[in-house]
Design brief:
- The complex is a heterodimer of chains A (114) and B (116).
- Chain A is mostly beta strands.
- Chain A is built from no helices and 11 strands.
- The chains are: A mainly beta (114), B mainly beta (116).
- At the A-B interface, β5, β9 and β10 of A face β5, β6 and β11 of B.
Chain lengths: 114, 116
């Protein structure tokens, strides 16, 4: 079975540009999570969805960040306009429901904003 | 207050020896789950082991075991017979509640170096 798929794997963009990160969760999983990892702040949950509905977006840094999940097999995280401080690795993860189920992480997108 | 605390920024161990990575947690919820993830230098997050708050026995997965001490709110990861490939960052994480609320809270991580 394919794991969580993220694209692109690496993104380099200039400050002010729009950036869109994409994620395909594991089939059958109904939870999807977006995380950001930086040296300074570690691994932070940005937002998560259940059955395509955003449940908790309290981790989204500011209005420049938005996330959508139009269907069960696709989600996007958009940054507009991007800033150098947005440089990080962005992970998407998915899981089935339940306390005992681990989250399966994608390979991450390394974003560099110059 | 920190929900998950990993007090060891870095650890090193000799190959073939055992090592314990510390994790303490803070929750008032009686139902919770504890996870350990490994992040090698390639960057991916790899699930290692899970312990439920109601589990009577300590979880084990191959060379990984979780030393769960509920009263002390600790969930230390023990890696036996360390291998060079175990060199990585290790994250402890907690999920609270049992109503399908799946938010994981991660600790800051411990970097493990295995020396030959």
């Amino acid at each position: 079975d394919a794991g969580v798929i993220q694209s692109p794997r690496h993104e380099v963009t200039e400050m002010g540009q729009e950036v869109t990160l994409r994620c395909k969760p594991i089939s059958g999983h109904d939870y999807l999570f977006w995380y950001r990892q930086t040296m300074m702040r570690g691994l932070e949950l940005l937002i998560y969805f259940n059955n395509n509905v955003p449940i908790d977006d309290s981790g989204m840094p500011e209005d420049r960040f938005s996330a959508k999940m139009p269907n069960a097999s696709f989600s996007t995280l958009k940054i507009q306009p991007s800033e150098p401080r947005d440089s990080a690795v962005y992970f998407c993860a998915s899981s089935p429901p339940g306390l005992a189920y681990e989250q399966y992480f994608g390979p991450g997108t390394r974003l560099t904003v110059t | 207050a920190q929900k998950i605390t990993q007090t060891q920024p870095g650890m090193f161990v000799q190959e073939k020896e055992a090592v314990t990575l510390d994790c303490t947690y803070d929750t008032s919820d009686p139902s919770y789950g504890l996870f350990w993830y490994k992040q090698p230098s390639s960057g991916e997050m790899i699930f290692l082991i899970y312990q439920g708050s109601y589990d009577q026995q300590n979880a084990t997965e191959g060379r990984y075991s979780l030393n769960f001490q509920k009263a002390r709110k600790s969930a230390n990861l023990v890696i036996s017979a360390s291998q060079l490939g175990d060199s990585a960052m290790y994250f402890c994480a907690m999920r609270e509640g049992d109503g399908g609320y799946n938010k994981l809270i991660f600790g800051a991580g411990t970097r493990l170096a295995v020396h030959p």
